[in-house]
Amino acid sequence: AVVLGLAARLFVSRDIERRLGAEEEARKAKEAAEAASRAKSEFLAMMSHELRTPLNSVIGFSNVLLRNRAGNMRERDMVYLRRIRAGGQHLLSLINEVLDLSKIEAGRMRVDRAPVALGALVEDIVASFEGQMRDRPIRLESDVPPHLSPLMTDPAKLLQILTNLIGNAI
Q1: What are the φ and ψ backbone dihedral angles of 157, each rounded to 5 degrees?
Q2: E strand or H helix at 37
Q3: Each residue of 62-100: pLDDT tens digit?
Q4: Is residue 46 within 8 Å of residue 27, measured between CB atoms?
Q5: Is the model's pTM score more than 0.85?
Q6: What are phi and psi of 114, to 5 degrees?
Q7: At a CB cut-off of 8 Å and minimum separation 6, what does 157 contact?
Q8: Beta-carbon neighbour count of residue 57 at 10 Å?
Q9: Closest residue by Cα to residue 159 from 120, 101, 133, 132
Q10: H helices within 68-154, ranges in order?
Q11: 146 Cβ contact partners less than 8 Å away, ≥ 6 residues apart
């Protein structure tokens, strides 16, 4: 009985040591994961600022040129400027979406509902792909009923979804 008791005690103490070691490894792994997550969040915040600054400049200057105060720009140039501005705004929304991933992970994601004119949105998206369509043997057309009521949705997220769908299809 004494031998069985000592064997049982030895077995239990080894089991406890293994469990304590496993708990310590799990704690260290959790701390490393949390540190990596903080580093990722800091990197995203820094990069978003570094990307937004020049992008806001592109959008701002395209707005200045679109005013065409001198009246010397052709309509075709104005169309191109509107596309540059729309592309810049889309890129800015994508940068914001990358930041939203961090918000989702932290449980802080918001959905902003606003009325969206689907016809105008689709028209702008299709126009933004015109440059990519030139060298391809495919056509991109849209057929949105003309008298749709505005949709209540998140405009930026809908833009991203439709742009991704069309881009993947192309």
Answers
A1: -70, -40
A2: helix 2-67
A3: 888 888 878 888 999 998 998 898 888 888 888 877 777
A4: no
A5: no
A6: -155, 155
A7: 97, 111
A8: 11
A9: 120
A10: 75-106, 118-128, 130-133
A11: 119
